[in-house]
Every structure is written in C-alpha cells, then in structure tokens.
C-alpha cells in the first residue's frame, strides 16, 4: 500500500490553476507524501446549473480523502448560486476557521513588525445560518443562533490549538454587554473551559475595542477565538495590518474533514498572466501538511519561502523598489522557493512545527446537565400600521385579547418599551412585540397560548410569530426591553 496521503485538489478559477500548479510543484520538490484526486469546482460547474458549484462526485472524493486543498473560485454574479465555501463548511461540519496573521517585516510592509496572531473563528453558527424573514412592510429579521455545543467546540479547539502550537494567551471577543444571552453564552463557556487550561493566559475583549486594538496593537494578541461574524471581520483587519492580505492561508477544520485555501479570491483581473503570488495557497498547504502529520515537510517549505522573501525575490504585488532584488512571475517565484528548500531565513525567525502534531485534535464536549425549563409567558409579534401607530391604541386593543389569565404586560417596538408608559419621542415601525404573562409570572400552558392566539386573530391582528418565554432553573431566559 502507498504511504502517500491522498488529498482532494481543486484548481478553481481565475488565478487558481496557476497558483495551484506552483504550490503543488513546491510540495512535490519538498518531498510531501501526497497523491491527488482532482475535482472540478467553481464557475464552470455553476454555469452548468449546479447551484452548489460542486459536482456531486466531488463530495464523494472529499468523503474519501477528508482533506481538501482548494484554489479560489469565481462566484458568478446574480442570485441562485450558493457559496461553495459555506456549503462545504456546513455539509462537512468544518466548525473551525483558522487564520494565522503574521508580519514578515521588512520584506512585507507593515507598521507592526512583531505581529504574530491566529484568529480562530466559529464557522457554522451565528448570523451565517442565513435564517432570514421579511415580516412586515418595513421590517426583516435575521436570526442569530448560538449553541452551547457549538461554542464549546470552537473554544476547546482554540485552547487545544494554543497548547499544540506553544501559544501563550487566548483572547475571547464578544459583544455580551449588548447580546447578553447569545454572546453571553459564548463568553460564559469560554470562562468555564479556560479553567481547564491553567497554563494559558486568558482575557476577554468587547469586539469593538478588540477590533480597534487589532488595528492598532496587533502584537499584543496571540490566539483570538470569536463568533462567526466578528471572526470574519477581524480576520480581514488582522490580515490587512500585517500587510499580508495576499499571503495568508486559511484552514477550515472539522472533526473528520478539513479544507485549506488562500484567503484571497480568484483575481480575474490578473488571471493567466503569470503575475499572481502563490503564497496564500502555499501557506494554506503548509497548514495542511502540519494537519496531516507531515510537519517536517511543512517546516522546510515555510523556511524556504521566508528565505525567498528575504532574498528579495518578489512577485509584483509585494515588490518594493530599493528592497526587492528581482520581480518574478508565479512560476519563477515557486522555482526560487524550490531552490531554497533546506535553507532557513537569516533575519526572520525560522518556523518550527511540533513534530508530534498529527491529525485533527480530539475535542470532547462536557456532559450536558439538564436544567428545569418552565414556560412563563409569550411574546406575540404583530404587523400593525393603524391609528397613527399610537402605542396606546395597539395596547388598548390587545388588552381585549387577555385570555384565561394571560395578561398583556408590555409592548416594544424594535426592542424599546412603548407601552405602557412609553415615550412620545420613540420612533415606531409596523413591527410590534407584545408580551403576555400570567399574574405573578406563574407557569403558562401551551393551551393558554393557543387561546390567546385565537383571540389575537379574532381581533384582526396579523401575528407574525410567537416566541415563548422560558425560565431555566428559575432564571429568566429572555432579554428585558430597553427601558423596562
Ligand atoms: P480578489 O482577492 O480575487 O482580488 C482583489 C485584488 O487583489 C485584485 O486586484 C487582485 O488582482 C489582487 N490579488 C488577489 N490575489 C492575488 C494574488 N495571489 N497575487 C496578486 N494579486 C492578488 O477579490 P475580488 O476581486 O473581490 O474577487 C474576485 C472573485 O473571487 C469573486 O468572484 C469572488 O467571489 C471570489 N472570491 C473567492 C474566494 C474563495 O474562493 N475562497 C474568496 C474571496 C473572493
């Protein structure tokens, strides 16, 4: 049996084929033990009418090899096409997006030469679930779903990553001062898991100041773990401040399958011109080699690549007059790296990978202790655009729906309390949240809610949706209104 590891490879669109050819040439010259199953993805597949951008056989290849080295693809403009990245991430459970952002100063221009951080972004949940609805003339909603196991999995991954790669600190970033339940769950889970890693420093930053600090003091961060949307944004900020947006590689890691790629897109403006910098994909491939247990080959390539940068052999995108010695094309750049295999950088710190690094880390979730869940009310959302949108008018009408003990206790508009006792100045849309609870907040039955809905409908209201209000172990498990 061959000792070579079979991986799935996609050449992609635009500059994809050129940078993949350069990358595979380097991998081969460095002695990577690989064989390839090449699949077709991207524009040509989309244009055949396959909305996922991936031939059905491509999924079979990934199921078999479990490792995907992917060039960027062009996403056709217009509706109907799904993001291939999102499809791959969600279909194969690639829950962790890992993006190292490192400065290579002075060879790559940056204001922060000491930057060396890794962003570990949750990849499956949050607003990226894409559960959206238009509910009224004026209002749409996008659901942000955060789960305990999803949060725990990515947070454990971040700590295991820090341990495996000798990183000292893990910073969690959330906006839990505002989203106390969703982001609060992530932060709370982080604090719990952190206790299991006493040798790793931890801290938490609110995402807005956290982003500002990445832009201004990136060298103070080591590993950052965060939710999907924040991670997407801060990883571009971090890549930009290190000056290496075109050089970054990225890994999307699941329990079984992992996908490795460049951060950048298919750059159709320079496709076929032998101008593209293959470094992003090459750095993705280096991460892949570490992941599949070939860290010595990964190290050899990373060091030869840094040596090439130091020798001033640069593609056009990183060429600097006075510093670079030679402007080269894609394949010549790859050749220069191949010639330096076995050499180390002289001025930059050589890369060293832990030789014991092997296949995906074993992430075990904590056992779940069931809480006592009690139904204690209901929020009824209605579409209402009458009586000059006077909150007192809708309040008086809905009071007639008080049924079988459930009483209207509160109405909010875009989260702000407008009834009873709202402020005249509050701007109201046509989207109203109306809260019903029993006196003394005693438990509510489903039958009571059904009766209530019957009454609300009879009063002529279009109820958009209901949201049950629960307590868990006696603790309120829903947010209060602004001004409540
Ligand atoms: P892009 O990253 O492709 O290009 C932005 C700019 O950077 C262009 O001027 C380009 O020439 C330059 N550039 C990018 N990579 C380079 C490299 N390796 N060497 C030298 N210069 C490089 O972003 P875009 O133009 O917004 O997107 C083009 C296409 O790529 C779109 O269809 C987009 O949907 C797709 N895209 C795909 C992925 C992916 O497959 N992972 C990621 C991002 C964008």
Automatic annotation (TrEMBL):
- Classification via InterPro entries: IsoCit/isopropylmalate_DH_CS (IPR019818), Isocitrate_DH_bac-typ (IPR014273), Isocitrate_DH_TT1725_C (IPR040978), Isocitrate_DH_TT1725_C_sf (IPR046997), IsoPropMal-DH-like_dom (IPR024084)
Q: Which Pfam families match?
A: Iso_dh (PF00180), Isocitrate_DH_C_bact (PF18324)
What Enzyme Commission number(s) appear in the record? 1.1.1.42
Asked whether the keyword Acetylation is assigned, the reply is no
Q: Give the organism the record lists.
A: Belliella calami
- Name the catalysed reactions: D-threo-isocitrate + NADP(+) = 2-oxoglutarate + CO2 + NADPH
The Isopropylmalate dehydrogenase-like domain sits at: 6-337
Q: Which family does it belong to?
A: Belongs to the isocitrate and isopropylmalate dehydrogenases family.
Q: How does it assemble?
A: Homodimer.
Question: What broad class of enzyme is this?
Answer: oxidoreductase
Question: Which keywords belong to this entry?
Answer: Glyoxylate bypass, Magnesium, Manganese, Metal-binding, NADP, Oxidoreductase, Tricarboxylic acid cycle
Requisite cofactors = Mg(2+); Mn(2+)
Q: Which GO terms describe its molecular function?
A: isocitrate dehydrogenase (NADP+) activity
Q: What is this protein called?
A: Isocitrate dehydrogenase [NADP]
Q: What does this protein do?
A: Catalyzes the oxidative decarboxylation of isocitrate to 2-oxoglutarate and carbon dioxide with the concomitant reduction of NADP(+).
């Amino acid at each position: 049996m061959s000792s070579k590891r079979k991986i799935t490879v996609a050449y992609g669109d635009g500059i994809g084929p050129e940078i993949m050819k350069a990358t595979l040439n380097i991998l081969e010259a460095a002695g990577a033990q690989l064989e390839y199953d090449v699949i077709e993805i991207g524009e040509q597949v989309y244009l055949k009418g396959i909305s996922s951008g991936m031939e059905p056989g491509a999924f079979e290849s990934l199921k078999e090899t479990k490792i995907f080295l992917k060039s960027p693809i062009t996403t056709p403009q217009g509706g109907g096409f799904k993001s291939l990245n999102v499809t791959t991430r969600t279909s194969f459970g690639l829950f962790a997006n890992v993006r190292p952002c490192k400065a290579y100063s002075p060879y790559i221009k940056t204001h922060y030469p000491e930057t060396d951080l890794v962003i570990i972004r949750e990849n499956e949940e949050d607003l990226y679930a894409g559960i959206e609805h238009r509910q009224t003339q004026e209002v749409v909603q996008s659901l942000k779903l955060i789960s305990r196991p999803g949060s725990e999995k990515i947070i454990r991954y971040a700590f295991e990553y820090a341990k495996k790669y000798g990183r000292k600190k893990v910073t969690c970033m959330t906006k839990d001062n505002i989203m106390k339940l969703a982001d609060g769950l992530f932060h709370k889970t982080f604090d719990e898991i952190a206790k299991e890693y006493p040798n790793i420093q931890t801290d938490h930053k609110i995402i807005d100041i956290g982003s500002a600090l990445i832009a201004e003091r990136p060298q103070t961060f080591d590993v950052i773990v965060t939710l999907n949307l924040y991670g997407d944004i801060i990883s571009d900020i971090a890549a930009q401040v290190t000056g290496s947006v075109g050089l970054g590689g990225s890994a999307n890691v699941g329990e079984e399958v992992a996908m490795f790629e460049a951060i950048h897109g298919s750059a159709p403006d320079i496709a076929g011109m032998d101008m593209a910098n293959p470094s992003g994909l090459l750095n993705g491939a280096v991460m892949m080699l570490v992941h599949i247990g070939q860290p010595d080959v990964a190290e050899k390539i990373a060091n030869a690549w840094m040596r090439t940068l130091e020798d001033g052999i640069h593609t056009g995108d990183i060429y600097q007059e006075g510093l670079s010695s030679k402007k080269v094309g894609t394949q010549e750049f790859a050749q220069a790296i191949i010639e330096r295999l076995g050499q180390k950088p002289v001025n930059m710190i050589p890369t060293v990978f832990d030789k014991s690094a092997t296949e995906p880390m074993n992430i075990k979730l904590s056992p779940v202790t069931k809480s006592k869940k009690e139904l204690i009310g209901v929020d009824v959302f209605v579409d209402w655009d009458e009586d000059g949108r006077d909150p007192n008018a809708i309040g008086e009408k809905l009071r007639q729906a008080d049924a079988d003990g459930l009483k209207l206790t509160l109405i909010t508009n875009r989260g702000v309390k407008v009834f009873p006792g709202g402020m005249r100045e509050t701007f109201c849309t046509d989207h109203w949240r109306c809260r019903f609870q029993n006196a003394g907040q005693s438990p509510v039955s489903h039958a009571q809610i059904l009766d209530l809905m019957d009454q609300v409908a009879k009063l002529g209201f279009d109820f958009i949706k209901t949201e049950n209000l629960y307590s868990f172990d006696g603790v309120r498990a829903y947010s209060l209104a602004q001004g409540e």
